[in-house]
Amino acid sequence: MRDLARRAAFAVVAIPTATAIILYGGLPFVAVLMLIAGFGAWEYYRLAEATGIRPLAGIGIACAVLMPVIVHTNAIGVTAVPFAAGALAFIAIFTVALWTRLGQRPLAAVSATIFGALYTGGLLSFAYLIRYHRFVIDAKAGTALLGLPLVLTWATDTGGYIFGRAFGKKKLMEAVSPGKTIVGAFGGVGLATAAAFAYIAYVLRPLAHLTLTPAAVIVFGVVVSFAGQVGDLAESMIKREAGVKDSSNLIPGHGGFLDRFDSTLFIMPVAYVLLTEFARTVL
Questions:
Q1: How far is it, in rounded angstroms, from Cα 59 to Cα 210?
Q2: What are the tens digits of pLDDT across the range 90-130?
Q3: Mean pLDDT, the chain, as a whole number?
Q4: Using CA atoms, how far apart are residues 65 and 30, in angstroms rounded to an integer?
Q5: Is 70 exceeded by the pLDDT of residue 3?
Q6: Disulfide check for 247: which of 24, 33, 48, 256 has CB 3.0–4.6 Å away?
Q7: What is the reported pLDDT for 81?
């Protein structure tokens, strides 16, 4: 109950604050993405170190933090920045690894460093691409569009918890996440799909003048929910190898940033691709 109270108190503050920042957009929104990416990368590299790998944490965190900035600069027309920044980061990672990790698994260090930056800052940057999608006509529309995958993340977690606790017996992947059940997984998909229908009808259509066909809504709800659950299990697998329960204790009642955003990281690129394919303007 104490943990639930902390979660509720955090949500009361976080949800309206996040909504206001997304609505305002621009550099404040980029700054929040940088913050989440930075702390998420820090947590990931700590987990990697617990497995015996020595990633280049400082460079990796810097790369993760800069990825939302690179996406932003590309969006405002500075198109050479992504390619130049990526090339320089790649060269820097290999150079430092060869200099400091000789005899200490340099390839593992490089791989973990690059993966950590892409896993956190890279995947999260798709939130910016959704907020400023070509379908977006104003700030309200961008906020409503980004709200769709965020709501489905919550619906998947809620459906999985409710149905899993009430009816779940057979475990989904007990070796990775003992609390997950097959019934809970289907419950998360079902609630996410229902939430997609409701959100598109009552939020996305009136605020963003966007909609999806009924068939597309079903595909969107199922695929996005599945991606979120894979993201959750992926982070659980990383924590299991590192031998820890939470990625950190930075967020009250939620553990760490990766614990809170593990599903979101996988959902954002999937949602961006599906929205690009299926969203239609309503006149």
A1: 40
A2: 788 878 877 777 567 888 888 999 999 999 999 999 999 99
A3: 90
A4: 10
A5: no
A6: 256
A7: 64
d(CA 104, CA 241) in angstroms, rounded, equals 19
**Rounded to two decimals, what is the model's pTM?**
0.91
Q: In this structure, what token pair is assigned to residue 173? A: 């992947």
Question: What confidence score (pLDDT) does residue 105 get?
Answer: 80
Q: Give the start-to-end residue ranges of the domains of the chain.
A: 2-281
| Residue position matching structure tokens 């995958």 | 149
Residues 177-204, buried b or exposed e (16+ Cβ, 10 A)?
beebbbbbbbbbbbbbbebbeebbeebb
pLDDT single digits (tens) 36-87: 999 999 999 999 999 999 999 999 999 999 999 989 988 776 666 666 677 7
Closest CA to 70 of 85, 59, 55: 85
CA dihedral sign of residues 19, 24, 29, 32:
negative
* Token digits of residue 56: 């280049």
Residue with tokens 């595909």: 219
